Amino acid sequence: MDARLDFFTDPTAGKALKLFMTVGKALKDSSVPAATQELVALRVSQINGCAVCIDMHTKEAAVAGESLVRLNLVAAWREATVFTEAERAALLLAEEGTRVADAAGGVCDEVWARAAEHYDQEQLTALVVLVSFMNMVNRLNVITRQPAGSYEPGTFH
Q1: How many Å separate Cα 60 from the centre of its chain?
Q2: Do residues 40 and 90 touch, judged by C-beta distance below 8 A?
Q3: Residue 149 backbone class (left: φ over 0; alpha: ψ -120 to 50; beta: rest)
Q4: pTM value?
């Protein structure tokens, strides 16, 4: 499959990608645990069907030491026993934040309160920005049919 656009050769995309990298760096530098960030990025990407992001975040998480069991169970996290309560709250926030059209009111108060039990204001901000950022990147990749499978960990660090 060939991508509809080549983000690495287009001048407008090049400018935007530099800004995206700045956002990504700010998120990585937040106090949200790196494992939680990768799990959230992976779950949002699964919901949106963004193969290139699923490829990237699965590989990055594995290189960072995430277990294959946990990575394989992200899509079924509700039934899995391998996630902490904090991770479960972040994954629920990510799902409702991604499925805003389905949720009719966005993230409900119960889900927000559950996340707030585990994360402080700075971390909640980082999680909200991460979910929003991943939804944007997923859409860019899905719309332009970016191919997946060849991502090398560390490419965007």
Answers
A1: 12
A2: yes
A3: left
A4: 0.93
- CATH architecture label of 34-143: Up-down Bundle (1.20)
Residue 132 CA to residue 55 CA, distance in Å, equals 19
Three-class secondary structure assignment of the chain? CCCCCCCCCCHHHHHHHHHHHHHHHHHHCCCCCHHHHHHHHHHHHHHHCCHHHHHHHHHHHHHCCCCHHHHHHHHHCCCCCCCCHHHHHHHHHHHHHHCHHHHCCCCCHHHHHHHHCCCCHHHHHHHHHHHHHHHHHHHHHHHCCCCCCCCCCCCCC
> Over the chain, what is the mean pLDDT?
94
Sequence letter at residue 118: H
For residue range 46-67, list pLDDT tens digits in order. 999 999 999 999 999 999 899 9
Residue 146, token pair as written in the block: 């970016």
User: Which token pair is 15?
Assistant: 């400018």
